[in-house]
Amino acid sequence: MSVGAPADGLVPASATDSAAEKRPGSRIHWELLGRPWVSAVISAVVHALAVILLAIITIHIRQGLGEISLVAVTDSPGRVETAAEDLILESRDTTDELVNPRWDSSSSQRDVADLLEVTADQTTAPAADALVTETGSLPIDPLRSYSRPTGGGLDGRSPEKRAQLAGEAGGTPQSEEAVERGLRWIAAHQSPDGGWTFDLKKSYCAGLCANAGTEASTTAATGLALLPFLGAGYTHTQGEHRETVRKGLYYLLRRGRTTPEGLDLRQGTMYAQGIAAIALCEAYAMTHDEALRDPAQSAIRFIQAAQDRRGGGWRYAPGEPGDTTVTGWQWMALKSGQLAGLAVSRSTLYAADRFLDSVQSDGGAQYGYLTPESRRATTAVGLLCRMYGGWTRGHPALARGVSNLSTWGPSPVDIYYNYYATQVLRHWGGSDWKSWNRSMRDYLVATQAVQGHENGSWYFDDEHSRVGGRLYTTAMAVMILEVYYRYLPLYGEEVFPPF
Length: 499
Description:
Elements: H1 13-22, H2 26-33, H3 36-57, E1 59-60, E2 71-72, H4 159-169, H5 173-188, H6 218-231, H7 242-255, E3 257-259, E4 262-264, H8 270-287, H9 290-306, H10 324-339, H11 346-359, E5 360-361, E6 366-367, H12 376-389, H13 396-408, H14 415-428, H15 430-447, H16 463-481, H17 483-486
Antiparallel strand pairs: 1-2, 3-4, 5-6
Helix pairs in contact: 5-16, 6-7, 6-8, 6-16, 8-9, 8-10, 9-10, 10-11, 10-12, 12-13, 12-14, 14-15, 14-16
């Protein structure tokens, strides 16, 4: 535009009048606009559009999480409207940084209720270099079909099923009592704001228990503390621990940060994202509380967006090339989302399968951390992911991998390895499972603390335990002892009836 020329679209009035006189019908148009009834119609249309727009951007959902009611507001951060005024909520952490340049770390921390703006059927689009399409149109190995196996549900967590499955699958009255004592210890170490911390010196415990952890993420601690309650059938709507669970879920919702990619629950680590997402998905699946549906779906969306699109795995920050341990938690979160009926992109699962291919050895019987160099814990993680990814019980590599775990046996200190390997053997069943279960179950019952403030807890000293501390080891031990009913078996007659 030249200097001194009128701005685009701005024309002198005289020029407009002259042009209007030369255009047939233009005077009729202007005369119509000047009539009162035409102005009234235009005004009515404008006001109707404004009302519709307000109805779209102001969303109310049914009351959930007890007395908690979430209301979405688009224009300002706002606050959660809640009757739970007895909760003392921490300020949200804004210090963690996102390393992927396509992420905006300055996104405003709007109220968690803003998640309701995210529709449940939104999923992350597949990367341009993905090897398969969303519909899975390329040939897929039938041994790795995602349609099988179809077990692994949460139906065993009801009081009746829990007692039945524990008795049938190898639990004992002593192991069930150990579960309840462990849950009481975890509940006693919940902070007044509803969350948990790995550093017990900062918790209600105030250092009365030894072996405090060092990991700073309270969302990881809270998600991990909630999982054993959910695994035993306790939710925020039923059971003696319902208030403990309700406060914990509410804490996760208040600590989450809304981003364009979904609900960020990390507080610095993708471990926390996966663990907290599992807790939200399982709580929603078990209660169908609509207050949890959108946050759970949004947490899944964040996991999908954070995937390394080329390698298919996950690590500490979004977009980083993956490692097997972080990937394992995200994988289980995605499967929990599927069990809850949430939208999970198949391209995300296919890409994660490619990552497992990159760290496997012996044809998929063993797995490494960043490379195919095998480790026991990562082998257990990889095999469990393969089971949930669709490997049938007849897959040769799966059979060899289970044989390796059975030969290695439970570890006296590596509770992380024990946690994943126990699930693999439980799904596998047979004599390998019976032998493993007998050793693992009796060892945990015998090593549970019975005195003082530590009564009901566990601690095993290894590299993971020194980070997560006594809260981590106790939560993992309880979930191992819940293995009989926490997830239904992936393989068996109840999953694949005989022909």
